Structures are given as structure tokens and as C-alpha cells.
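Ticket #4471: structure export looks truncated?
Reporter: QA, pipeline team
Priority: medium

Steps to reproduce: submit the single chain below to the structure queue and open the exported record.
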Amino acid sequence: MEAKAISASLGKNQIAIHHIGSTAIAGILAKPIIDLLGVVSDLDLFDARSNMIHALGYEAMGSYGIEGRRYFRKSDPTGRRTHHLHIFAEGSTHIERHLAFRDYLRCHEEVATAYSALKAALTDVQSPHQNSYIDGKGPFISAVEKDALNWYRHKRLK
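Actual output as written to the record:
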């Protein structure tokens, strides 16, 4: 339902919308936040029409540390975060990176299980830093990403 509303907002500029993040990988620990990746043909056109995304209740967060990304988040009426939306222009290397990681974990249960265990351990750690959970996942993601990209590219060539 959310993807359809985003799709309508993006109009003809939309190329694809993908479900990414932990909720897109069966059987692993995931916060109840849906991550969506939107691919557009023209980022400038998207920027000119981003008010359509705001109208859906999304808050713009800028690039949020990833060049070429438009990042949005949405919360329910109680303030609980429900969605993250990542918009990239077609051809961005970040699209392949996100899809490769997701698909690799979907097809490599042992890696997905290890990732889930790490997430559980990070959730249990008390830290004064809000970003410690994200930072704690970074080394694992970086270590898996190279294999995931190689696997993904090879899979797509078949």
C-alpha cells in the first residue's frame, strides 16, 4: 500500500520501488520499520516534486550521509517511526549495493543468521549514543558487502 502511494507520487519519473532492509529478509531480527528504495530517472525532477512525498507524511532528511540519496522518514500519529524511504537516481552504485546485500542474505541463511545475532547483541547493549546500533552493524555489512556484490553481479549475468 505504501509503495503504491509512493509510486503514484513519483509518477513517470519512477523506475522501481524495492523493499530493502531487515524486514525484507525472512527470519531475521528487524525493527518494525519498513525500508523502501525508490529509483528515479531524474533526481532534479524528483527534487522539484518532493512535496508529493511530504504530502504522504514523510519528513525530508537530506542525503543523511550518502551522496546522491534523498532520505525520508515517516512516523505514525503516536510518533513511532514506520517507514524509511531512500531515493536514488538510476545508475547510482548505492542501488546495487542495497539490493545485493538484501538478496545475498535472502539466499545465504548462515550469513543472515549471523547478522540477526549481531543485531540482537547490539540491541542488548546499553549505549549513550543513538547511532551505536547503526555503527555496530557497519563492520559486518562492510565485510559481507564485497561478497554480496560479487554474488549479485554473477547471478545477474546468468
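Status: closed, not a bug. The export was complete when the record was re-opened. Leaving a note from the reviewer for reference: The chain has a mean pLDDT of 94.
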